[in-house]
Structures are given as C-alpha cells and as structure tokens.
Amino acid sequence: MSTNLQEAAGLDPVIKGALWMLGAVTCFSSMAVAGRAVSFELDTFEIMLYRSLIGVVLVIVIASLAGTRRQITTRSMPLHLVRNISHFTGQNLWFYALTVIPLAQVFAMEFTSPLWVILLSPLVLGERLTKTRSIAAIVGFCGILIVTRPSPDTFNLGILAAATAAVGFAGSAIFTKLLTRTETITCILFWLVVMQATFGLVCAGFDGDIALPSAATLPWIVLISCAGLVAHFCLTRALQIAPASVVMPFDFLRLPLIAIIGILFYNEALDIFVFLGAAVIFGANYYNILSETRAVAAK
Length: 299
Prior knowledge:
Blueprint: H1 3-9, H2 13-38, H3 44-66, H4 77-100, H5 103-110, H6 112-124, H7 131-148, H8 157-179, H9 185-204, H10 218-241, H11 244-247, H12 254-266, H13 272-298
C-alpha cells in the first residue's frame, strides 16, 4: 500500500465524509446546469421519469459487474418508500425552482437542508442536539433571512419551491442515514431509481401526455441521470462515515461555484445579499464542523 493510501486510510471520519461530499457538490452542480437546459422541453415529472429509467439500467449494469446484485433486498421497503417520496418531492420542486429564480438563489435556499437535518436528526436518528448544533441552526436561519429578505415584494413561488425542496432533501438525507445502518449502497440506489421511475411515470402520465426527449435533449438527460447517481453514491458514503449533521454543511461549497456559472453562462446578476447570507450560514456550520472535529479528536 502506498503512503498516500495509508494516509487516506487514517483520515479522520469527518474529513473522509467531507471528501465524499465534494464529489456530491460537483455532481449536483452539473445537474443544475443540465436541468435548466432540458426544462424548456420537458416538465419536472418527465425529467425525473427519464432520469430514473436511465438510472435503473446503470444501477443494474454496475451492480452486475461489481457482483453486488445480491445485496438488493426488500426488508426495508417502508424506509425506502418514505425516503424516496421525500426525495422525489424535493427534486421536482428543485427542478422547477431552477427555471424561475437565479441558480445561486436556488442553491442558497437549498442550504436550509442542513439546518433541517440538524433539527430532525435527534428525532429520527437519535443523534444528540448539542448546544453547538443548536447555535449553528439558529445562526444559519438568520443567514437564510438575509438571503431571502422575506417581504411581499421579494416572495415568489420559486423561493417557496426551493425552500420546500430543502425540507425534502433533508428528509431524504435523514432516511438515507437510517438505511445505511442495514442496507448497502447498491440496495439504496436500486430502490431510489426504481421507485422514482414509478413515481415519475405516474405523475408525468397523469394527463395522458408524456413528451419524448429530442436528440438534443437526450445527452442532458443522461448527464442528469449519471450525475444524480454519482452524487447519491458520494452522499451515501459520506453519511455512512460521519454524522448527518456534520457532513451535510459541506454542501455549501456549491454556492460560489454555481454563482460563477450563473454569471458566465446565464448573465445572472450577482446578488451581494445571497453571498452575505451564505457566508453567515457557512460560518455557523463551520463552527459546528470545527466543534465536531475537536470532539472526535478528543476521544
């Protein structure tokens, strides 16, 4: 084993979780760009349908090659169902928000997800709501108020969709953490794509009209599907390694990346309040991360 591998094997669990989250950040940012590219041709349910159908093929092929198909079980179906309903709802609202408000604002609103994870983890996962985590949640919420500056003039459906999507993603993260106690990543990803393909088919076909992706749109759908699967793989690995309330705040690195993309490719204005609020949120969560790391090191 090389020195680098030995060093990697000895990394603190929080650092390992952070590295996996960096992979998720990159993939989720790619999904945002691809999601906006296909939104002019497909609705959110159709995007989820085709993304998940491609995902079913990818998961089965990869699981077959890796020899992990036997890990797919049905023993935790209620948890899979709740987890995927939560994620499907959040993902659809997220795709909608991408089309009506700036990318940076979507991501800034999505940053409420770690706050919900911090608050809900004690109820679902049995993780302690420490003083540090409580302070991080309160200060982080203040940062969200700076980003949104709620008033009759600034409130719109896009902001509401992005905020509600964050609750859905928090629920998905919490139930993913719960599933990792008994299920493998292959099992979790398999039921993710199968259930969400089913949800997408039902919702997209409710009106009897399901649009087919064009040749120009199909590559973007493939990118959404691949990036989504890799993102969930990275997220699941991070949640296996470290507490949910610790690894999720690393997702904040998406904001500067997506803001640059919005400026360069979509001519979106740079809103200083988005960055100011995000800085407050990041500071609160960095305080939480630093405290958690010191607590682990002290054991």
